[in-house]
Amino acid sequence: MARMSKADGMQLSDEELAKYIGTESQRMSKAAYRKRAHDQVYHGKPAEVGKQQRNQNFSAVVPVEEPPLPASGAYVAPPAPSATVLFGGENFAVLETVGLIRVPVRRTGNLSLSVSVDYSCRDGLARKGEDYEAAEGTLTFLPQEAEKTIDIKIWKDDIPEDSEDFFVDLANVRCSSKDGFAVLGPVITARVVIVDTDKPSIIYTDDDVVQVDEVSKDKEVHMTVRRRDGCGVVSCKYATEDGSAVEGRDYARAEGVITFGQQEFSAEIAISILNSATFEDKEDFRLILSDATGRAGFDPNTDGGADSCIVTFVLTPEEVSKNLAHRTMRALGVNWQKTQKGHENWKDQFINALLVNGGDDEAGPPSGFQWALHLLTMPWKLLFAIIPPVDYCGGWLCFYFSLMFIGLVTALISDLAGLVGCVLDLPDFITAITLVALGTSLPDTFASKAAAEQDPYADASIGNVTGSNSVNVFLGLGLPWTIGSCYWASVGRSAEWQKKYESEANFDLWNTGGGKFIVIGGDLGYSVVIFSVGAFFCMFILFLRRKAFGGELGGPRVFKRITSVMLVMVWCVYVVLSSVKSLESAAASTCG
User: Fold this and answer.
1) Does 121 share its domain with 162?
2) What is the pTM of this model?
3) Residues 214 and 314 in one domain
4) pLDDT in tens, 406-424
5) Is residue 75, in this structure, part of any structural domain at all?
6) What is the DSSP string of 302-345?
7) Rg of the chain (C-alpha set)
8) How many domains does the chain have?
């Protein structure tokens, strides 16, 4: 039971403030939200956490019931009181900007008598002298007066804080007439809640997961979005996003902006659920609230955290899900909507490959340089457009096709680099550490650069480097060496094998037993030593940068450029020294 006072200048109705403070005082914990979401997903109904508390309603006045008349007999009831004094409500709420709150006190009974009652204030979460000015004294009801007020000053501060409360008590009621007497009614304590206006508004939803039963025709679902704390006009954007359900077939896209006015604490978003022509298992899509404005944010305890609010809609099929079609679809793992969506995406891949900038109209008209790059790379774009989209087979088809194309491109780059080295009369070793290494590492270089610019830490940049090197060493060497070992073990020491290795110093040792796959080390040891020295030098530079600037990346522009030049020089020194050693070995082998 409560009566909510209007805030001076805010024009909030009694009902709106009552709903607000009822929600504010009964907020659920993070554990309760998680339990609620769990029950909705796995049991199909929300948990009853906090339901009774949230459903408490506040009314304006608690009526005073007259005591029943005594039954006839020996017992004689005491005379009825001449007057009953009580508060006009049990709970009140005001914004801290109101300045003054008038708490009503009422008296019932014989209005021809004068009645007095004492009142005083006591702290709750609010503190007298800081949040309000304590009032204490005596109220006197003159004849024919049925209601008076206790005026209490509310003080505003500029500190964001939770809502606070204090209490007003009635005591020592008395009647001026000796022939009558007065009593206190059932409501002798009033709670006053001071709603903070400095705290940002929180935009949230009652549920993180919403179960929707699919029916044989389209229907509309209304999602209620609420706001608590703060004041003023706030807004946020909303948009739907595919999960296993597909936009345009399972639901209609919803996108826009919801705005909470000065007197609004809730708003609704309408989402259309479409009747799917094909049978599907349980599916889901998401409604995402983001980009809050007007000193508003989102509840960090809900899905999406402080940056957004995410509601998952789970579409549950009708009872037909128990039939043979349902079991067949689950066994095959087929999603016809995803498959049809994949057909459209696959077609779009080829269209985007033929258009400059992928047909992005927001990028503006393409420049001459962009046209040149497009014409140069268009064959590669069309080649890789053959890779199926992620909509098929849960993305696995795209994964395996991508691996296959990466292998083909790597083999092509290696062969082309070998041909260039042959034309320029360069040893394979020099070709490998220059042309092949640059061709296969440039994509990783740009990926590391993007990660360094977009991530708060450089971990992703280093991860690209180590991941690429691991693939090159373990897969690029391990796989062909394993295949070569199996091949020569099955073929044996053929004439071709003996001709290739008979000039080597260890040929007598190798020419025993079965066939062997042999890789001549050559100048690999020397190259590894140079590489290791360069690696330690690079780590030393990064260590000095952390000590000097607090991080490996960034810092003053001059030192960034100096570091870049030093690191490039380390690579150049490695290439030059390794190439010179390789050329010397090749010359010595030719002379020998």
Assistant:
1) yes
2) 0.41
3) yes
4) 878 877 877 887 788 788 8
5) no
6) STTTTT-EEEEEEEE--GGGGSHHHHHHHHHT--HHHHHHHHHH
7) 40
8) 5
